[in-house]
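Look over this entry.
=====
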Amino acid sequence: MIPRIDDRIKAIATGGFRVEVYDEDGELVAKQCKEAGDMILSNFEALLNGLLHGAGFASSGSAAIALFDTTNTNYNFNQIDFSKCSAEAAENDDSYGIQVGSGSTQPAFNDYKLGNQIKNDVLQYGACTYQDFGSPPNVKPGCSRKFTNNGSSNVSVSEIGLVVLIEGTQPGGNTGSCKCLMMHDVISTISVPAGGILNVEYFFNLNPSTS
């Protein structure tokens, strides 16, 4: 049987995640995992277009790469400086890296932010760190982040996302930067108990059919 086109694409790359909740005693109380998540977004497609087609992707003098930040502001780039791009947000910085929220709307391709982000004053954001969760050829480059509930009430989480800091050269030669949502998933609602920790891992699952 000849595989469908979308099946072939899934055999090359998907986006996945792992979510774990621990109570105040460090006991695992909930876990969700998907090797293929809901949505890799238009911002990621724009980066791929730039990588594959470079400045040739521009037409009529427009920039090669058009991105939208988490306020839905458009940023145009002629060149991306990958040495300054990162998802490794510092502790307490909830503006990029892995984010969590309480929204329930199914992700759409042009999403630019979470439906309802849970901020650092509700769940304390730990540092977001790079990690490869696989091994060649099934590599899974991604990030992990811990969220601590320092409050006295449970916190419900129903969505996760990955926001990346992008920096590059814009039309006219100026340097610009923006924080762009790359992946967005709605999960079954989980409760992070008071004193508990939520651990989220996000990864791009490359060559999953070889695992």
In short: The first helix runs from residue 5 to 12. The CA atoms of residues 169 and 175 lie 5 Å apart. The chain is about 10% helix and 45% strand. The longest strand covers residues 175-192.
